[in-house]
Amino acid sequence: MKLLVYDMLGREVAVLVDAWKQPGSYEVKFDSSGLSSGVYLYRLIAGSSIQTRKMLLVR
Asked: What's the number of domains the chain is made of?
């Protein structure tokens, strides 16, 4: 499983998870102290499933 964060220019700004996980629910803390306010994309890759969503970071 991978959980990645990208800025709107497509640059990878954080790798939150990069490890094999058993099926289940997980919680991940995201330290965004080095990022400015704005819109970011996060991508969850689990097996053959890939989901990309937008998130808004507000300071």
From this structure: 1
Which residues neighbour 38 within 8 Å (Cβ) at sequence distance 6 or greater? 7, 8, 56, 57
Closest to 44 measured CA to CA, from 53, 36, 35: 53
d(CA 38, CA 53): 14
Global confidence as pTM: 0.89
User: Which residues constitute the domain of residue 3?
Assistant: 1-23+46-59
Please indicate, yes or no, if residue 30 is contained in any of the structural domains. Answer: no
Please, what are the averages of pLDDT over each run of 10 residues along the chain (59 residues)? 97 97 92 95 96 96
